[in-house]
Write a structure and sequence with these properties.
Elements lengths: L1 H48 L9 E6 L2 E6 L2 E7 L16 H5 L7 E9 H5 L8 E8 L5 E5 L17 H17 L7 H4 L4 H5 L26
Antiparallel strand pairs: 1-2, 2-3, 3-4, 4-5, 5-6
């Protein structure tokens, strides 16, 4: 029995843990490539923008090892690589793909999250302001990928296993995120949500966050959802 346990532990460790390490390495390598693409996009677009309106220039910041930002006018796209490797739940559409059915290990994925925030939320320390997850990039041991997201950011699951992540595909994802962000407008909050304010909110200069601001404050944006099967 002891021998069986030892063999099981060793086999599981060598198979699953090796795959997870490969997934992490691929995701981290992809995230470094994504930072390069963000930098290139910034330079490329600013060459055109600076001639039209200097206020609109893009700003790229490589903030941390697993984080990066792209400021676009009044918005910030925040890119974050999760340091863990994930498995999909059994109800996820990815399990219907033959690529995953043929090799369960292909389902283990790293995640790069893309959030949209208002740039003023950071500028004025409005800590209660809302940001939205607009895309998740999944990368596996084979460096294959797919994207879950809003509108043009949602790719079909059944593309998974057919294409490896590249500079070109990352640029397409980033530019799709920029387009979505520019179309994703800040709506006037419902009157009842902001009709009462405290003296402290008015007097505390840094507490603008008490009156929470977000692009869809008070609304559930079902119309933006992408249903991918």
């Amino acid at each position: 029995m002891e021998k069986n346990y030892k063999e099981l532990i060793l086999n599981t460790l060598l198979e699953k843990s090796t795959v997870k390490n490969d997934v992490f390495d691929n995701t981290f390598e992809t995230f470094q490539l994504l930072k390069e693409v963000l930098h290139e996009i910034t330079i490329d677009y600013n060459k055109k923008i600076i001639k039209k309106d200097k206020r609109l220039i893009l700003e790229f910041r490589d903030t941390e090892k697993f984080e990066a930002e792209l400021k676009i006018a009044g918005d910030i796209l925040f890119f974050h690589m999760h340091t863990n490797v994930f498995e999909f739940d059994r109800n996820h559409g990815v399990w219907k793909i033959s690529y995953v059915q043929d090799d369960k290990m292909t389902s283990y994925s790293g995640i790069i999250n893309v959030y949209n925030f208002l740039s003023d939320s950071f500028k004025y320390n409005r800590y209660d302001d809302l940001g939205y997850l607009i895309a998740r990039i999944f990368i596996n041991k084979d460096k294959n990928y797919f994207v879950e997201g809003k509108r043009q950011l949602g790719f079909l699951y059944n593309n998974f296993g057919q294409e490896s992540i590249t500079k070109e595909s990352l640029r397409k994802i980033i530019e799709s995120a920029i387009l979505y962000t520019l179309d994703f407008d800040l709506l006037v909050p419902p009157y009842d949500n902001v009709k009462i304010a405290t003296v402290a909110q008015m007097l505390e200069r840094k507490n603008n966050a008490k009156i929470s601001t977000g692009k869809r404050l008070g609304f559930k944006f079902y119309a933006d959802d992408v249903s991918v099967k």
